[in-house]
Amino acid sequence: MFPFNINLFDLERIILTVPAVLMAITLHEFAHGYSAYLMGDPTAKERGRLSLNPLAHLDPFGFILLLVAGFGWAKPVPINAYYFKKRRLGIFIVSIAGVVTNFILATLLTIALGLQATYYPNGMISDMITYGIWINLVLGVFNLFPIPPLDGSKIILSILPNNLAYYFHKIEKYSYVILIALIFFGAINKVLFPVTQFLLSLLVRFILVPFF
Fold this sequence. Notes:
mainly alpha; 2 strands; 2% strand; globular
């Protein structure tokens, strides 16, 4: 699940953004499934989710809503934590894998932008890569929020003592209402976009600027 700003009436921006969205979603979900598989859980593999085919991970309604409203989601990868020999460690690794993947992608795309701008300058390609960097950063930061069903909530649960985890589970049934309310009233954006902008500035300063 992730939000980002997109103008429905800017067709060019939508066309340039879709490849970045598909890449970010696909690799994020694949990372969850593959890390779970490495930890001993075959569920994602058995259900055909260890795939780099975007169609395996897209939720049609969530994807359409993303293009229309700037907010959407993918199909969550099924995970069975009972397969993990070390349950808490497995949950932590699987939960953080998608976020780490998005941050790695943003870094690699920043390098690609520097190389592209240096050796093959092209405005449209630069825009596509730039959208890819931004979307991966937004997706990574957004999923770190400790609100179910986001990855951050599972990361928190993997390290909380059992007595505190119990109370955390109790609010989970209200999680979608809480999350949507926070997004609707702009509370999420007050943290999400400043943090994303800060990370982007680090990538620009330490990776992109040296190319010029």
